[in-house]
Amino acid sequence: MATKQLHVVMLASPGVSHLLPILLLGHRLVTHHNLHVTVLAVTTTATTPQSLSQLITSFASHLSVIQIPAADISCVVPPDAKVATQLCVMMRETIPSIRTTISAIDSHPHVLVGDIFAYESWAIAEELGIPKYLFVTGTAWFTALFTYSPLLDKQVVGQYVDKKEPLEIPGCTPVRPDEVVDPMLNRDDENYAVYLSQAIGVTLADGMLINTWKIWNLKLLTHYEPMKSYGPW
After folding, report:
1. Which of 41-55, 82-96, 198-212 has the lowest mean pLDDT?
2. Which of 67, 146, 217, 223 has the highest CB neighbour count under 10 A?
3. 66 and 177: one domain?
4. Are 200 and 134 in contact (CB under 8 A)?
5. Is 30 exposed, middle or buried (0-12, 13-18, 19+ CB in 10 A)?
6. How far is CA 56 from its chain centroid?
7. What pLDDT score does 47 carry?
8. How far is 8 from 107, CA to CA, in rounded Å?
9. Cβ count near 95 (within 10 Å)
10. Closest listed residue to residue 14, CA positions, set 70, 98, 83
């Protein structure tokens, strides 16, 4: 009896820069691991239709790509909200459409993979009784700081940028206060609260896919040593 082909549904948040890594990973899973992959691309009117269409077409021979119009969030967040905040809210408000699209797919999915803005869609995977995985396209350094931020929030008093000593991150080189990512620059900003919520949400995944290397010189990027890959590529 032939083994049933594993069906992986991959969810990409709006933006070609978010969609391309998902398409590349999906292509890798199909061509190197014989998996069936469906990519759900949440799109907005800000995306250039021509460039998006060309990108999707280039992967069409291996992947099934379904475009899902992003929900209108104009009444939910102010127009000057930070991009990360807009993306998190947009993905949350689009969950009903994502759920409907997945339920209409002929082949029942066995796994759901999403980027860092798709974490609230873990609820759909739980409804289907399938595992959900986080796909991180950033560096291991960012991932360590990002996922440890909720604990730092409890440990550190005051603004991070005002601290004199480096922030200790398990398994990571200590982070100087002036090296923190933008959402951590002002803990009183609403964007910081969104960042913390996102950091907590992504850790609720059943696993993480990350492809990275160990950097010895972050400024020059001239010396690096191969590091164990945490993804199937």
Report:
1. 41-55
2. 146
3. no
4. no
5. middle
6. 19
7. 60
8. 10
9. 15
10. 70
Pairing of strands 36-43, 7-12: parallel
Higher pLDDT, 125 or 52: 125
Q: How many other CB atoms are found less than 10 A from the CB of residue 86?
A: 21
213 domain residue, yes or no: no
Specify the pLDDT at position 138: 82
Active site residues: 18, 115
Residue 16 pLDDT grade (very low, low, confident, very high; cuts 50, 70, 90): confident
pTM of the model: 0.83
Verify that 146 and 119 share a domain, yes or no: no
What CATH number is associated with residue 18? 3.40.50.2000
Whole-number Cα distances in Å, 221 to 33, 61, 72, 136, 179? 31, 35, 40, 20, 17
**Which position has the higher pLDDT, 148 or 212?**
148
pLDDT > 50? residue 142: yes
Q: Residue 228's pLDDT is what?
A: 33
Phi, psi of 150 (to 5 degrees): -60, -35
Helical H segments across 9-139, by residue range: 16-33, 49-59, 83-93, 95-104, 122-128
* Average pLDDT of the residues of the chain: 85
Q: How many residues does the chain have?
A: 233
